């Protein structure tokens, strides 16, 4: 009897614990009293709020509440723009005590709805924290505030002949803290690897306001768990990144790029193999755009790589870049590759254009980097950022188009284009669907269809953009229950009140 009562009470305890851990934490809305508290330690221009006594019109908050794609929209009343780590710490301490949800925001260029609130959480913008703290031109270690714009960091280190280890189309707006928080991949990953390798240290304000100063500039440091790795790609769910220490490589002495037109997608893989063999250490990017992506980029003024005759019969294009130490050496290697390609019995390419000037180099890159913007001008974009075997890129784009056709959705008033582009060298396809509007019909034709397709290749449903708000329900397609459970426990350790970027990454 005693035994069964103990068992019953143990069961009851388990049930209670289950209830606690599965319940959504209740978060509080910001009030005028909170604003009065923030005003004690923040300058007036660091507080934007529709609440009194600040009372700005909602239109001033709009850009912070809306994401880059115009797909996600929050209803926050307040944006804080602190200037120092101590101010961030005080904000977090208060929000932790008051159970106020906080959304860290960088350049707001994220593509999965992670950077905007889903309700009325406080928006903590890092845009006023934009100072370079130090740069060592010998080791290449750069320490910067999280709010530094990626492009300004590139410009800052350029006179020292260094470059940032990452580059992406959003470089003019995205911030280094946002890059780290999304573990952004981009156009240089093939050469310099992921941020998990190049970030040397981080300064992070934890949800309760504690400052974790891990801003090391050491190349090697095996003292226990490497905590910074947890914040790289955490999408603001574990803390606010306020400072970043990052290893910047020496700038290559010479760079070249070439755009290649391919008669069929089948040729992409053999071309990649051949490029690796011929170019080895100087191959720094191998990017892919399909015909639709190319035509949209040209249509929307994102550069023009080839003439109309040259693109005749081309199914897709590859933008290949080399970065090396000696101009003649690199050009010789590239020319041998091009000759091999054109002179073979069954040429892998129909034509290719090698950039002849810095301006043409930039223009060829614009053609690739400008694709997201060009696609966005065609309507509303559904974006699937997936890792799958390179050989399957076309299959996935075609299967998705076919699925939309079957559902009767492939026409001007519904889905206008199904597009494929991406980082072939990294096995990362960007499958984009340009539609007249975001509608439940299109969404249910695409999901779970795309996720199931990706899972059938044992791929990843998020190669580089993250989970954000978009994919919380789909994370199980790429991660096991054991892994998701561990993630939940980590989140609980860092953020027991669930205030950090609520309902992002984990449901
Ligand atoms: P935001 O969009 O503001 O935030 C993104 C996420 O990080 C959010 O969850 C936010 O809460 C969190 N966050 C931001 N700052 C902090 C911080 N300081 N501390 C804690 N959390 C924070 N991505 C790629 O990976 N590769 C690409 O090639 C690429 N190209 C792009 C091209 C275009 C045109 C656009 C619009 C986007 C592109 N992206 C790309 C996606 C996006 O730009 C990157 O993910 C970028 O790293 C986001 O930086 P951000 O400062 O804009 O962050
Ligand atoms: C890119 O590679 O261009 C980016 O990741 C943006 C996008 O996917 O649209
Ligand atoms: Zn990308």
Q: What is the CATH architecture term of the largest domain?
A: 2-Layer Sandwich
Strand content of the residues, in percent? 15-25%
- Assign the CATH topology of the largest domain: Alpha-Beta Plaits
Count of helical stretches: 18
| Poorly predicted runs of 5 or more residues | 1-22
What does the overall shape look like?
Answer: globular
Largest sheet: 7 strands, antiparallel
Secondary structure topology:
Elements (H helix, E strand, L loop, with lengths): L1 H21 L9 H8 L7 E3 L9 H7 L12 E3 L4 H14 L3 E4 L16 E4 L6 E4 L5 E5 L4 H8 L18 H7 L6 H4 L2 H4 E7 L5 E4 L13 H4 L8 E8 L6 E9 L5 H12 L3 E8 H9 L16 E9 L2 H17 L7 E4 L3 H12 L1 H6 L3 E8 L5 H14 L8 E9 L4 E8 L4 H7 L2 H8 L24 H14 L13
Parallel strand pairs: 2-4, 3-4
Antiparallel strand pairs: 1-2, 5-6, 6-9, 7-8, 7-9, 10-12, 10-13, 11-12, 11-15, 14-16, 15-16
């Amino acid at each position: 009897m005693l035994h069964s009562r103990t068992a019953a009470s143990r069961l009851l305890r388990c049930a209670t614990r289950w209830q606690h851990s599965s319940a959504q934490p209740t978060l509080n809305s910001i009030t005028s009293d909170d604003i009065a508290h923030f005003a004690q330690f923040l300058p007036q221009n660091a507080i934007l709020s529709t609440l009194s006594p600040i009372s700005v019109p909602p239109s001033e908050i709009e850009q912070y509440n809306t994401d880059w794609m115009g797909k996600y929209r929050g209803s926050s009343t307040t944006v804080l723009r602190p200037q120092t780590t101590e101010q961030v710490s005080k904000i977090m301490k208060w929000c932790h005590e008051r159970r106020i949800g906080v959304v860290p925001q960088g350049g707001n260029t994220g593509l999965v709805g992670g950077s905007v609130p889903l309700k009325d959480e406080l928006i903590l913008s890092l845009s006023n924290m934009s100072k370079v703290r130090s740069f060592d031109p010998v080791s290449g270690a750069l320490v910067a505030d999280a709010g530094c714009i990626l492009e300004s960091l590139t410009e800052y280190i350029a006179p020292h002949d260094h470059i940032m280890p990452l580059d992406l189309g959003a470089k003019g707006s995205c911030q280094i803290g946002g890059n780290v928080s999304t573990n952004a991949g981009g156009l240089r990953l093939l050469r310099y690897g992921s941020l998990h390798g190049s970030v040397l240290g981080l300064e992070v304000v934890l949800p309760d306001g504690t400052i974790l100063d891990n801003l090391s500039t050491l190349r090697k440091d095996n003292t226990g768990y490497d905590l910074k790795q947890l914040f790289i790609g955490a999408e603001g769910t574990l803390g606010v990144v306020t400072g970043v220490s990052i290893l910047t490589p020496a700038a290559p002495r010479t760079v070249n790029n070439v755009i290649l037109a391919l008669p069929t997608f089948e040729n992409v893989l053999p071309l990649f193999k051949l490029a690796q063999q011929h170019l080895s250490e100087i191959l720094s990017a191998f990017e892919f755009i399909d015909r639709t992506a190319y035509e949209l980029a040209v249509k929307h003024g994102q550069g023009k790589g080839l003439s109309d005759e040259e693109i005749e019969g081309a199914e897709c294009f590859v933008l290949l870049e080399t970065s090396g130490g000696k101009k003649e050496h690199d050009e010789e290697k590239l020319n041998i590759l091009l000759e091999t390609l054109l002179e073979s019995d069954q040429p892998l390419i129909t034509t290719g254009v090698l950039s002849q000037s810095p301006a043409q180099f930039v223009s060829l890159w614009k053609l690739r980097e400008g694709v997201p913007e060009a696609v966005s001008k065609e309507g509303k974009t559904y974006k699937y950022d997936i890792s799958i075997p390179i050989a399957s890129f076309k299959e996935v784009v075609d299967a998705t188009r076919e699925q939309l056709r079957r559902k009767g959705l492939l026409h001007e008033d519904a889905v206008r284009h199904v597009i494929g582009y991406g980082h072939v060298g990294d096995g990362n396809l960007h499958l984009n669907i340009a539609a007249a509007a975001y509608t439940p019909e299109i969404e249910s034709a695409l999901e779970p269809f795309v996720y199931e397709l990706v899972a059938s290749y044992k791929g990843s449903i998020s190669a580089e953009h993250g989970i954000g708000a978009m994919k919380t329900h789909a994370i199980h397609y790429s991660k096991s229950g054991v892994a998701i459970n561990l993630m939940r426990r980590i989140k609980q350790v860092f953020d027991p009140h669930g205030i950090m970027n609520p309902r992002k990454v984990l449901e």
